[in-house]
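ok, trying the design again with the full structure, not the truncated one.
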């Protein structure tokens, strides 16, 4: 039985310089961990597709620019974002 080959971490932004590069997985996990929520709870709380969140955190996908911007807003003020999501009925 062989183990699956590890996937290389996808950079969040190909245009970033090596000194500024952040892997997509780490960027998403950092924001989620700051909220203290599980993947499912984070996805529900912020109206994010749970499968897309899992794919990024597993290194299978790279977040697009809009998702990365949304993460920055969540990191800055998660309570306000959550309140906006609830107010919008999402």
């Amino acid at each position: 039985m062989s183990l699956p080959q590890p996937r290389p971490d996808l950079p969040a932004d190909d245009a970033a310089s090596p000194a500024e590069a952040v892997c997509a997985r780490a960027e998403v996990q950092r924001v989620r961990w700051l909220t203290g929520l599980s993947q499912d709870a984070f996805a529900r709380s912020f109206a994010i597709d749970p499968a897309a969140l899992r794919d990024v955190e597993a290194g299978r996908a790279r977040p697009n620019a809009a998702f990365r911007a949304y993460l920055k807003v969540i990191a800055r003020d998660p309570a306000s974002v959550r309140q906006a999501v609830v107010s919008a009925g999402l």
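Keeping the full-length input from now on. The two ends are 44 Å apart (CA to CA).
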